[in-house]
Design goal:
With 585 residues, the protein is α/β, with parallel strands linked by helices. The protein folds into three domains: 250 residues, 3-Layer(aba) Sandwich (Rossmann fold), CATH 3.40.50.12780; 84 residues, Roll (Luciferase, domain 3), CATH 2.30.38; 134 residues, GMP Synthetase, Chain A, domain 3 (2-Layer Sandwich), CATH 3.30.300. It is 31% helix and 25% strand. The chain contains 17 helices and 29 strands. A nine-stranded mixed beta sheet has the order 2-1-10-9-11-12-13-14-17, sandwiched between helices. A five-stranded mixed beta sheet has the order 25-26-27-28-29, with helices on both faces. Helix 15 crosses helix 16. The protein is globular.
Length: 585
């Protein structure tokens, strides 16, 4: 079976009984646009017939759309016509997004850009400015005269037919096109469906970007696979007014939602008492938390803030996944709640997970549903026993075909074999351990900071630093080589909201961060660089780009507010910058 066959069967089964509804917040009033499953299928068939008429079979098409129903219809239209859809952020005026889109066009051999009429002019001008207008055509599908849905003919689509490409967000490397097949889509949607309790009907609510794996697979495609309704808004609307997300859950009686950790944190911090008073979140039984480290503080803050409104700690469903495995690898089953355990910090630095009553807290990311997960020493390729930290390896039907036109990278990542020859496995590049069947993720291999033989996880440093003062935001921790005499140093680049410093100075806050990290992690020699908001590099999905932030620091390109440099750290390691003050000055 192909994913197209599944979608068409669901459209036949539910017709106008199930639907997708895009919700817009207009000065506190919710405006709705809706497509039923039957209407969505008709629109997809029209788009598919049009693409087939352009002889686009097995060609790539870059989809640059704002949030809404048109993207979903066109994405399915690409599947219907065996066109390889490449979802990507709408670049608009962000230079980094423009560079990313240009890189994808060249990497994926794109000749057709699909968008809506509101953005066609801007994109056409941009293609001309970068010299691609002669090779790439930009078409607005919402005003295009399309054939009727009955003009569509089902092409030959097998389970291993390439369905679409998901470009990775590039937190530790250049974005790569992950090749996903129809079989990958079907299998991972089945994994998600089983995690949420295999419902025969249900309501989902979300706002995630449609161009990321979590938004596309976990939010947009799951309802038509499972046969449920979806109400969704734009990411911009959520960021501007986070209460909108919770109001939608309350209004539409949603049973499940999906989001990264920062979104729940944003709600706990920004939703007002008046807004909380009007909520009823008791319908929510499954709140997936994934795509970035799950923080225990966030779990507790949400229950504390919204418990009276019906948000239950049993709704928490931490999960682990990645684009190379379509999306979900492990998940917490519905109704179980998050599993939080404490582990000895010193043992974790030695890559051992030893439970300890007064240790650091880690949140379990659930268990494999049907995928096979191993923890493997990346050097010896020996499979580690439970409680040992090493690289997470994965095998199963959700694992992608590989990276587009990158044979060497595909071989390295997708063809892993253990010391005894078992495989192939997807090598995730993530560190973690299994304990009592539960997967705990501790960080990225490339991000681990090694100081005097100790393995420090940057997210632990970053989280501890953020708790020091309410003015502190995103952070990136990394190690730098400071010369033979000084050795390696830990550097923390920390965003600060200067307006929120209150009676404290930037220098005082930076020194408090140094002191807290020295106390918690035994790091008497480290540097703290406070930067303006936006100074810490992030991917389009919000993940911290530590290596990019490090490069910007060394290239003197960060908007430095204040720097407390550790004794012995020279300007060759961290260049002198405006407002930078050596420690003790």
């Amino acid at each position: 079976m192909s994913f197209v066959q599944r979608v068409r069967a669901q459209a036949d089964r539910y017709g106008h009984q199930r639907s997708y509804t895009f919700v817009e917040d207009r000065r506190g009033e919710l405006a709705e646009s809706r497509l039923t499953f039957a209407e969505l299928d008709e629109r997809a068939r029209s788009v598919g017939a049009w693409l087939a008429g352009r002889r686009m079979t097995d060609q790539t098409a870059l989809l640059l759309y704002p949030a809404g129903l048109e993207f979903l219809a066109v994405f399915l239209g690409c599947l219907y016509s065996r066109v390889i859809a490449v979802p990507s952020p709408l670049p608009q005026t962000d230079p980094r997004a423009l560079e990313r889109a240009e890189g994808i066009i060249k990497d994926a051999d794109v000749r057709l850009v699909l968008t809506d009429s509101a953005n066609q002019g801007m994109l056409t001008r941009w293609l001309r400015d970068v010299g691609l207008d002669g090779a790439v055509e930009c078409v607005a599908t919402d005003t295009q005269l399309l054939p009727g849905p009955d003009d569509w003919t089902m092409p030959e689509i097998e389970p291993d037919t390439l369905a679409y490409m998901q470009y990775t967000s590039g937190s530790t490397s250049e974005p790569r096109g992950v090749m996903l097949t129809h079989a990958n889509l079907l299998h991972n949607e089945q994994e998600i469906w089983r995690a949420i309790g295999s419902p025969k009907e249900g309501v989902g609510v979300g706002w995630l970007p449609h161009y990321h794996d979590m938004g596309l697979i976990g939010m947009l495609l799951q309802p038509i696979y499972a046969g449920g309704d979806l109400y969704f808004a734009s990411p911009i609307a959520f960021v501007m007014r986070p209460a909108l997300w919770l109001e939608m859950i309350s209004r539409y009686r949603a049973g499940y939602t999906v989001a990264p950790n920062f979104a729940y944190e944003w709600c706990a911090a920004r939703v007002t008492d008046e807004q909380v008073a009007g909520l009823d979140l008791s319908s929510l039984r499954f709140a997936l938390n994934g795509a970035e480290p799950v923080r225990t503080g966030t779990l507790r803050a949400m229950v504390r803030r919204f418990g009276a409104a019906g948000f239950s700690e049993k709704a928490w469903a931490p999960a682990y996944g990645m684009a190379e495995a379509t999306l979900v690898i492990t998940a917490t089953p519905i109704g179980h709640g998050a599993l939080v355990r404490r582990f000895d910090a010193g043992a974790l630095e030695r890559h051992e997970a030893i439970p300890s009553e007064d240790g650091v807290e880690l949140v379990g990311c659930g268990r494999p549903i049907s995928m096979s997960v191993r923890v493997v020493d990346p050097g010896t390729r020996a499979v580690m026993p439970e409680g040992r930290v090493a690289e997470i390896w994965v095998r199963g039907e959700s694992v992608a075909r590989g990276y587009w036109q990158r044979e060497e990278a595909t071989g390295d990542a997708f063809h892993g074999r253990t010391a005894d020859g078992d495989g192939p496995f997807l090598r995730t590049g993530d560190l973690g351990f299994l304990l009592d069947g539960e997967l705990y993720v501790t960080g990225r291999i490339k991000d681990v900071i090694i100081v005097n033989g100790r393995n420090l996880y940057p997210q632990d440093l970053e989280e501890a630093a953020r708790q020091v003062h309410p003015s502190l935001g995103a952070a990136a921790a990394f190690g730098i080589e400071a010369g033979q005499a000084a050795g390696e140093h830990v550097v923390l680049v920390q965003e600060v909201r200067e307006r929120s410093l209150g009676d404290s100075s930037a220098a005082e806050v930076a020194r408090r961060v140094q002191g807290e990290l020295a106390r918690v992690f035994g790091l008497p020699s480290m540097s703290v660089v406070l930067v303006e908001r936006g100074g810490v590099g992030k991917t389009t999905s919000g993940k911290i780009q530590r290596s990019r932030t490090r490069d910007l620091l060394l290239g003197e390109s960060l908007p430095v507010v204040h720097a407390e440099l550790a004794a012995g750290l020279t300007a060759h390691a961290v260049p002198e910058a405006a407002h930078a003050v050596p420690e003790g000055a």
